[in-house]
Amino acid sequence: MTAVDTPTPSARDGLLRRTLRDPVAVGCLVVLALVIAASLAAPLLTDHAPDRSVLADTLAPVSGSHPLGGDGVGRDVLSRLLYGGRTSLVGGALAVLVAFAVGGPLGLVSGFYRGWFDAVAGWIVNIIMAVPAIIVMLVVMAAISQDLDVAMIVLGVIMAPMVFRLIRASVLAVREELYVDAARVFGLGDARIMRRHILPVVIAPSVIQATQVFAVAIGIQAGLAFLGLGKASQASWGAMLNDAFTNVYNAPVLLVWPGVAMGLTILAASLLGNAVRDALGPAEPRVAKRRRPVPRTTGAVTGPLPAERLLTVENLRVGYGEKTVVHGVSITVARGEVLGLVGESGSGKSQTAFSVLGLLPDEADVSADRLQFDGKELLSLDLAALNALRGRGIGYIPQEPMSNLDPCFRIGSQLVEPMRKHLGLSRAEARTKALDLLARVGIPDPERVFRSYPHQISGGMAQRVLIAGAVSCDPRLLIADEPTTALDVTVQAEVLDLMRSLQQEREMGMILVTHDFGVVADLCDTVAVMQQGRIVETAPARRIFAAPEHDYTRMLLDSTLEGGPARAPLSVPAKPLKEVTS
Question: Which residue from 122, 168, 171, 236 has the least number of CB within 10 angstroms?
Fold first, then answer.
């Protein structure tokens, strides 16, 4: 990764610097640092062993030899407090590590892939959550070891379902985002998508969950030690509380030291988790916008494929259960040809396009007599081969530019990674090519945009960035899904001019999904009209406008305002309208 290939805005500013801006976080760090340092430096701060008992020092008062006095059996309180901090901190860390080591990967994979793995993992998690945690820990300690660390490992396994459900819910909320689909179209593998686009969303809630698990673990460990469990030689804050309650009337001050240490540690960890979460930024994913489909030309083709033909689709069918949404669609796209796909929303354009891109959900039943790109049968490709083809062979320009850029990464990072993967460029070479592409698509200050986050640029500039990304790996076929819908009229014209010039200079085939017949007339060589999952008419663009043959095509043309009579002037009422109030 380059200097800009960082997962969050805090990478450049420094997560620590952002956290230190919060005075509460600073206080929590100081408290935790003191607790950790004192526990680690216990041999340097006291000469007494935590388990050494001297009857003469029973309930000894504060003195130079015993700065905090002695406990009920003559052990040094300061020594047990410092060494007990080690036990509590290690136990809490063990529980957190085990909980996230078990629940984290399960939640990530279950949320991302769903299916049978999600069902099995959910079943196992439900069983674990139904088990009484304390009883299980007591049984394990009785059967295996009295060591409190063993109990904390068991506690981590028992708390893993909470981590599983949190991470799974976070992944489900973001897996359908358009920028995740855009990463698939660029040909990135599932592992890289999860690492770069899913994990940044999971981190913030996981930080809060980790601090909660840590606090609960310290409390439960103290409870077990308070009940007299654990090794007698193992100092802990819970064992100190047990001794303090035994001598509560003779030396009530013994309750103060372990109680304050536990309370400050748990409170500081919880508040620090909130501060780090805030420094990482909000973890709430945006609501995914629905996207539209991709065009195709009709007419089944038999025999050998012409050399210049890029895409051939014959008798494509897409269904969900008993419902079929695409009925026998057949289209072709040749090198240098621009095919326009026109139809109402729900006519099956998106389903047809996503069949080519391999982005339909697992529930979809896709079949075709032939679904070939550049001579390769797409339905027979495995995921790795399909990822290698997407981005490098087929580029994609989405409808919603801001929804297809990951808000956690800089623009430069999102442009550079696909080029490094598909073209094998070095960091410097990919960065240079990305800057050249940004300049080519008409961005006046490529360096600034390269370093910017998506929220720092306009919608028109974001669409230009996506066009640069779509052509960055030199694809042979470009699928543009209503690329100007979210833009104002002036920017629409500029983007269309840009797409036309890029298509001509690179001799790409292009599929253009649009409702705008003006765009069709301006860019398209061939037009396919789609209705209710079927292509009803395919013809050269000039003939579609001059002599449409199908009634549905004529209805769509008649519904446009181009060439219609001008609107009459608005009539101004003679008297001002009265304000209506309720």
Answer: 122
**Please, are residues 334 and 509 in contact by the beta-carbon 8 Å criterion?**
yes
| Cα-only R_g, the chain | 33
Cβ atoms of 499 and 310 closer than 8 Å = no
The four Cα atoms 365, 368, 373, 375 give a dihedral, to 10 degrees, of 130
Query: What does each C-alpha distance from 329 to 306, 347, 541 come to in angstroms?
Result: 20, 12, 19
What residues does 333 pair with on adjacent strands? Answer: 311
Compute the Cα dihedral for 459, 465, 469, 472 and give only its sign. positive
Tokens of 402: 């801001």
Which among 441, 490, 435 is positioned nearest to 461, based on CA atoms?
441
**Neighbour count for residue 417 (Cβ, 10 Å):** 22
Sign of CA pseudo-dihedral 483, 489, 495, 496:
positive
Residue by residue, DSSP assigns 282-320 as --PPPPPPP------------SSPPTTEEEEEEEEEEEE
Contact 52, 75 (CB under 8 A): yes
Alpha helix (H) ranges present in 63-194? 77-113, 115-130, 133-143, 148-175, 178-185, 190-193
* Environment class of 214 (CB within 10 Å of its CB; exposed 0-12, middle 13-18, buried 19+): buried
**Residues 221 and 152: beta-carbon distance below 8 Å:** yes
Burial class (CB in 10 A: 0-12, 13-18, 19+), 403: buried
Quickly count: other Cβ atoms within 10 Å of residue 291's Cβ.
22
User: Taking the model in full, what pTM does it have?
Assistant: 0.56
- How long, in residues, is the chain? 582
Tokens of 130: 């139904």
Which residues, other chains included, contact 322 with Cβ-Cβ below 8 Å and sequence gap of 6+? none
Please tell me the distance from the alpha carbon of residue 109 to that of residue 118, in angstroms, as a whole number: 8
Each of the 582 residues of the chain gets a pLDDT tens digit; together they read 333 333 444 343 456 677 778 888 889 889 999 999 999 998 999 888 888 888 888 888 888 888 998 888 889 999 999 999 999 999 999 999 999 999 999 999 898 888 888 889 889 888 888 888 888 888 888 888 888 888 899 999 999 999 999 898 888 888 777 677 777 777 777 787 887 788 877 887 888 888 889 988 998 988 888 888 888 778 889 889 988 888 888 888 999 999 999 999 999 988 888 787 777 654 333 333 333 333 333 333 333 344 478 899 999 999 988 888 898 899 999 988 999 888 888 888 878 888 888 888 878 889 999 998 988 888 888 878 888 888 788 888 887 777 788 887 889 988 998 888 888 889 899 999 999 989 888 888 899 999 998 888 888 888 888 888 888 888 889 888 888 776 666 677 777 788 888 888 888 889 888 877 878 888 888 999 988 888 999 999 888 888 888 888 888 888 775 555 555 564 545 554 444 443
> What is the Cα–Cα distance from 112 to 194, expressed in whole angstroms?
8
Cβ(368)–Cβ(318) under 8 Å? no
Contact 172, 380 (CB under 8 A): no
Q: Which of 336, 379, 341 is nearest to 360 (CA)?
A: 379
